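Lab notebook page, bench 4
Experiment: in silico fold of construct C2
Operator: M.H.
Input chain length: 390 residues
Purpose: comparison with the prior construct
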Amino acid sequence: MRADRLLYILQCLQTQRLVSARELAAKLEISERTVHRDMEALAQAGFPVYAERGPRGGWMLPEGYRTRLTGLTSDEIAGLAVLQSSSAVSDLNLSVPTDNAIAKLAAALAGPARDEAAYVRKHLHVDGAGWHDAREPAPYLGLVQQAVWERRKMRIRYPSGEQADGAVSVVMPWGLVAKRHTWYFAAVKDHREPEERPAAGSDAAGDDAVRADAAKRAFAATEGSEADSTGKNAANDVMNRDSDGRASPEIAEPRTYRVSRLAAVELLEERFEVPDGFDLALWWERSMAQFRRELPVYPVRLLVREEAWARFSREIYVRVKTCADAADGWKTADADFHTLDSALGILLGYGASIRVLSPRALARSVFSEAKALLALYEGPDSAPQDQGHI
């Protein structure tokens, strides 16, 4: 609806100093001409919107201008309730502040909206964990979060392929990303050593202070290393690139660091500024697209029994390209795995329900593993096989 669109535009202008017509058109999925018509409608309604010309221009409101747009829709109330249940909120120790903020917001709502918010909070719970919790321990998440929030540099020790003990680097963390239960941060390496070298986490409390002392001792043992923090690990060395694969010339290229892999963290007093043009969500999408493009591909042609097809088609690390019915309850499929070893590990779990047609190297590997398994169970200490087969 146009009214909702106009309200959204006003909220964008209040939260951002200047917004271009192109940005608004992309966010609202409308044309730039429609944006200009909406701006004219707002001006006619008495809102003091005006345009700033030039290549970096856009639409804006006078400094300090605020509207009284506080209404919430049912979908927005439900969205806040989902946020309250997010595992990211608990990982960042923001559960209590989030509960308090939602309670204050509910108190400011009108009667019907307040009742609806209370109902949603009571009858909606989101559990993002699997049955087997794969949560990674990330003891330095608090310090990384503080560095991102306060725009402070960090001295980190980060294990890589070349240096299992980790290389020491000073980095500027630009943002945090939670991918389910795994935390990453985007950071640019600072090749200039900072002037101050305070104790790690000197202004952090509790466990952070204890970890900071341990971090400082760890740095003392590894000082002077200048090896690249991410080595050749593709999953932790994703660059910020344009859609055509070229490096973006406007801003530096952050690297992806996995918080759980940090061996030591020292929070520094020196500050940094994040470029205005850096968009964390867009950078992450591009990084993941680049990472997927660089994943190895191992094509396999195989026969799959019909009763095993439903399970095989849901394999996370397999991309089924084609599938066709074959004779006697089999299906012929072409699928992409990542490597021969990963294909071997997955296919062995299906026993006689899958037969590899090509490549022959994989078929021979499956045959060799099957022979080794048979020999293991036919050993002198094995139980007798009454059926004559396994």
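Observations: Residues 194-206, 217-249 have pLDDT under 50 and may be disordered. The chain has 13 helices and eleven strands.
Next step: discuss at group meeting.
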